[in-house]
Structure formats: C-alpha cells, structure tokens
C-alpha cells in the first residue's frame, strides 16, 4: 500500500489536519461520557472546559484535571496516586503519543459504570489539582 502524503497549505489547513486526524477522519470522543462529567463538575467553582487532542479537557483554576479521549476518562491524579490507580482493572497510563504523561491515567468505561464511580475518579483528580497554584 503506498504511503499517502499530504501537503500542508496554510495554518488553517494545518490546524484542520490535526483536528480531523492524520488520515482526514474526524477524531470523535464519547459525548455521553462528556455529558456525565459535565453534570458532575458543573456545580464546582472555577471550572472550564476546552477541546484538546480530539476530545475535551476540564480545567480547575486553569489547571487540567480530567477529560475525555475517545472512550476513555482521562484523570490527572499526580504521580503517586496515578501509580496506585494503575493497579486497578481498566486503568492504564495516559499515552497517546508513545510517551506517557506523568501523573495521568486513562480509565476504560468499565472502571466507572455508575455516576458515583465516575465521581470518585473526578474527586481524586480535583483533590490533586486543588493543591496546584492557579494559572
């Protein structure tokens, strides 16, 4: 199969190229999971959300604490808590580039079937990020 080469023609073309994904397909994320997260964090103060790496990230006082990547919950727990979380089923390092992000994990849907289980993950991420300085 021949390698498909695309020419980047402008900054907008470049941005669109990466928003869609390398092959031109749209990189989707689980919107139902995003709605579940939004339902929980909407009552928290100083939160915001931002589209990033083909998904959505949530910020607390300017620091990313969680998000959705494809069908995964991503959570920023800090290195110690993340290491412990990796011992749980359905949890793996947050690695979408070949280089894992320290202190972050990816949780499969089976790891948060109920809203209460999802809230536990979000509370862990919130606890870590609340200790960081605001951005």
Quickly give the CATH architecture: Alpha-Beta Complex
Q: Tell me, what's the shape?
A: globular
Ranges where pLDDT stays below 50 over 5 or more residues in a row are 1-25
Calculate the terminal CA-CA distance, rounded to whole Å. 47 Å
Binned, the helix content reads: 25-40%
Which fold name fills CATH's third level, the topology?
Aspartate Aminotransferase, domain 1
Question: What is the average per-residue confidence, as pLDDT, rounded to a whole number?
Answer: 85
Computed Rg = 16 Å
Overview of this protein structure:
This protein has a single domain (28-130), classed as Alpha-Beta Complex (Aspartate Aminotransferase, domain 1), CATH 3.90.1150.30. 33% of the residues lie in helices and 23% in strands. The protein has helices at 11-20, 31-41, 79-85, 115-130; strands at 47-52, 55-60, 63-69, 72-76, 91-93, 104-107. It has a 6-stranded antiparallel sheet. A hairpin with a 2-residue loop joins β1 (47-52) and β2. α2 (31-41) crosses α4 (115-130). Mean pLDDT is 85; it is low at 1-25.
State the gist of this model:
33% of the residues lie in helices and 23% in strands.
Features:
135 residues, globular, 6 strands, alpha+beta, six-stranded antiparallel sheet, disordered N terminus, Aspartate Aminotransferase, domain 1
Topology of this structure?
Blueprint: H1 11-20, H2 31-41, E1 47-52, E2 55-60, E3 63-69, E4 72-76, H3 79-85, E5 91-93, E6 104-107, H4 115-130
Antiparallel strand pairs: 1-2, 2-3, 3-4, 4-6, 5-6
């Amino acid at each position: 199969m021949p390698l498909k080469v695309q020419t980047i023609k402008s900054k907008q073309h470049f941005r669109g190229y990466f928003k869609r994904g390398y092959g031109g397909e749209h990189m989707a994320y689980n919107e139902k999971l995003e709605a579940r997260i939004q339902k929980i964090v909407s009552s928290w103060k100083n939160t915001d959300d931002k589209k990033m790496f083909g998904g959505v990230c949530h910020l607390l006082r300017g620091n990313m604490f969680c998000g959705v990547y494809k069908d995964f919950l991503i959570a920023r727990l800090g290195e110690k808590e993340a290491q412990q979380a990796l011992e749980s089923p359905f949890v793996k390092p947050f690695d979408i580039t070949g280089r894992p992000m320290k202190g972050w994990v990816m949780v499969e849907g089976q790891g948060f079937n109920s809203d209460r289980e999802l809230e536990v993950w979000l509370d862990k991420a919130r606890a870590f990020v609340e200790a960081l300085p605001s951005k």
